[in-house]
Amino acid sequence: MASSVMPISRQADGHPSSAAVSAVGLRKSYGDETVLDGIDLHVPAGSVFALLGPNGAGKTTAVKILSTLITADAGDLHVGGHDLAADPQAVRAAIGVTGQFSAADGLITGEENMLLMADLHHLSKREGRRVAAELLERFDLTEAASRPASTYSGGMKRRLDIAMTLVGSPRIIFLDEPTTGLDPRARHNMWQIIRELVSGGVTVFLTTQYLEEADELADRIALLNGGKIVAEGSADELKRLIPGGHVRIRFSDPTVYQAAASALREVTRDDEALSLQIPSDGSQRELRSILDWLDSAGIEADELTVHTPDLDDVFFALTGSSVPSQNNQSKDDVR
């Protein structure tokens, strides 16, 4: 199977260019267990990068290392242009982090949580109140601002988490399983928030157990398994790695169907449905070739549909794991 890992452009000093986050040879072990086995990551500024993997694969460990919460065993790591080992304080000043579980204090109000973050960022009281009010309005939390955070719904707590993260105006945000436990409406609202952040120039490093989420949001996706990056690319690039794509041609006239079935090679017939299935990677070139062949042969099909593998298929094929359950809590909080 061909690798989807794309080449990384490098500056003269050897570091990836235009990278908000870069990691070369990132390693981390816990005793005899190797969690990250020399992985390389490259996250362009102003993009969404998704790190996928089975439960316990080390996604949260990668986030904790890159956000300075724990140290790596080895690796050349840069975040926001700063060397993680040499200047972790500068990295902390450039980033925001939202974890799997709410960081808000449930005993105080939403507004008080925001003002506490403003104090931590050393904003003046006046500036802190201005920033808190603007963010509470932006995330539709103004009406709930005077209520204890413990009374918020799951979606409201996640919005408050991100609002708190934005108090310091970070240009890079790590979102570790940001929609875990949310209902579909709240999840889609969170997706829109992430899109708006990126449109404003923020870089988002996302870990998720929802493959649909990565497909919807990510410019690039890396699949982590067994401590290594087993594939990386856009969603479309990853899908093309997996066999099973095909074009389905359906006919209404049995005579035309038989003529097409006899003329085409390497097709799978469905005589009951009067349809033919042709292996294809779904590319425009292959689709155009099939259409040109039908036209030159004077064969008129009633319906032509393209089927390509989805990220579920990619995940299963490359990790040997079942697709992550949308109801299972990630085990990455342990590793």
Q: Look up the CATH topology of the largest domain.
A: Rossmann fold
Radius of gyration from the CA trace?
24 Å
Molecular shape:
elongated
- Helix and strand run: EEEHEEHEHHHEHEHEEHEHEEHEH
Structural class: alpha/beta
User: What is the CATH superfamily label of the largest domain?
Assistant: P-loop containing nucleotide triphosphate hydrolases
Number of strands: 14
| Chain-averaged pLDDT | 84
Give the distance, in angstroms, between the N- and C-terminal Cα atoms.
29 Å
Helix content, binned percent: 25-40%
Output the number of helix runs. 11
Low-confidence stretches: 1-17, 323-335
Counted up, domains total: 2
Q: Sketch the major β-sheet.
A: 6 strands, mixed
Overall CATH architecture of the largest domain? 3-Layer(aba) Sandwich
In percent, how much strand structure appears in the residues? 15-25%
Strand order of the largest sheet: 6-7-8-3-9-10
Under the CATH scheme, which class of the largest domain? Alpha Beta
